[in-house]
């Protein structure tokens, strides 16, 4: 039983990060209708950029995180303006391929600029073993989870309660109607991408400070996709619940099944869940079932 | 449709013919003869490039039928190629079957695997299919890496070269003949399939699936068929790849490779058989160019000297797909059509 609690809570803590990355995907998807396949790569590059700002310029951690956010936001605007705006009116396939092209580019960039090396953040989140009812955790994971939840909360409130958020939701309903009511839809697209990239970057910094930066981080970012689909594409609470469920299920699968099949279940379990979701409940737990009429 | 003026069809057979005029026949025959004479005078470096192109052409033809004609995006094509490669490798090493039997078996086995992962297309479409194939990519490669007793795990497998009687086909030139003959046959088959009832049904499904269903097209059947055909092509390409490289490993078939094939489809032109060939040729040559230029970049910017050309080729590739999507979304095949039309109407451009 103690094992079970340990696995459950570790999964919960990891799942918080997935939820954060998934939120970035969902916000971009809701507002612009584009599923950002590059989110994992952006997360990794965000982590590396923060590391470079910090170690290259010798700035304190909080300043460098702030600078990284500014870079990330500018990058988000640039991606929308340069890559995706020319594709407005093209079939959705083109936009998906554009995000894939972006992830291909960033994949090369990480090797070209950072040589794809393993890098460690100087420790800025205290790391101690914390005992909770028979289970032991690193305080890093707990703090990362708390930070992820706070960020998740802030962006959800922005999305649901502010004027900008209202514009975003209006845009997600219908681009043309939103434009007709005087909303600058293009600006909203840019802003949404900036938010999505910043969210990915936060995920990258948190993950990098726990596990160290490495090219395999991008694969961790990909696990946000099963989370998004499990929660339902358009649902923000879905991203949270989906992310945490994927985290828990993946740790459980790894703990109980790994001895049977010889390891590595953790990386594939989210995708098996994804397949099951697609077959039995394609619109996820909280997604809108699409009804098409001629 | 694409006829010089004055060439009129007077029978159904003429209307259906792929090759219509004498000049086209001459060019086709001369082209094929030239292609198969290449091993006589091409260096082994260029033969190896052409072999890679040939295998890519087969893989991309399949993907183009699934994504370009039927509109189902696949992010798992590299994994399906892996299924073909492993099937062929297992059949030839563990069951000592000859390559010539393993090749079609690899195609069929991959086709069946493709059907399994195409099953979710019963309920979902478009972007969700991309997700299902993304899952296929990870699940298949996981199985290849962890089913040690059959696939050799992360150590991979050593594959024997194909042989005819006592003749072992292990040189670039002999593999070139094998790969190119199969590639030419597969291209011909794809060309015919794409303009048959099946191909037209796929296009209808892609353009508007509801309208297609109303017209009496069985959506599920044709989508599954597209998955099957695409996977058979992937399996054949994988089998050839395994026997050409003579060593396979799960790391040879990453997600990035799947995107690479999708990029070839885009750059060549979605929904075009010629486009698949253009895309494969263009991207492979671009990769070779970047590998050739990489060291030069390293000497100009010493900080990049240690970087492998792999990084530059992925950056260049991402950039090229992005540029094509923005400036020429219909790909090289469209340019080729424009060129042909321009040639035909010259000097009167209308």
Give an overview of the whole structure:
The complex is a heterodimer of chains A (294) and B (350). With 294 residues, chain A is an all-alpha fold. Chain A has one domain: ABC transporter involved in vitamin B12 uptake, BtuC, CATH 1.10.3470. Chain A is built from 12 helices and 2 strands; from the N terminus they run ααααββαααααααα. Chain A has a two-stranded antiparallel sheet. The model of chain A has no long low-confidence stretch (mean pLDDT 85). Chain B has 350 residues and is mostly helical. Chain B has a domain of 213 residues. Helices cover 73% and strands 2% of the residues of chain B. Chain B contains 15 helices and 4 strands. In chain B, the strands form 2 sheets. A two-stranded antiparallel ribbon of chain B has the order 1-4. In chain B, strands 2-3 form a two-stranded antiparallel sheet. In chain B, β2 and β3 form a beta hairpin. In chain B, α4 runs antiparallel to α5 and α9 crosses α11. Chain B starts with 11 loop residues before the first helix and ends in a 5-residue tail after the last helix. The relative contact order of chain B is 0.15. The model of chain B has no long low-confidence stretch (mean pLDDT 87). Chains A and B meet through α4, α10 and α12 of A and α6, α10, α12 and α14 of B.
* Lateral arrangement of strands in the main beta sheet of chain A: 1-2
Order of helices and strands of chain B: HHHHHHHEEEHHHHEHHHH
Major sheet of chain A, described briefly?
2 strands, antiparallel
Taken in chain order, the helices and strands of chain A follow as HHHHEEHHHHHHHH
Q: Which consecutive residue ranges of chain A, at least 5 long each, have pLDDT under 50? A: none
From the spread of the alpha carbons, the general shape of chain B counts as globular
* Low-pLDDT regions of chain B: none
Distance N to C terminus of chain A: 54 Å
Give the C-alpha Rg of chain B: 21 Å
The rounded distance between the terminal residues' Cα atoms of chain B is 16 Å
> How many β-strand runs of chain A?
2
Structural class of chain B: mainly alpha
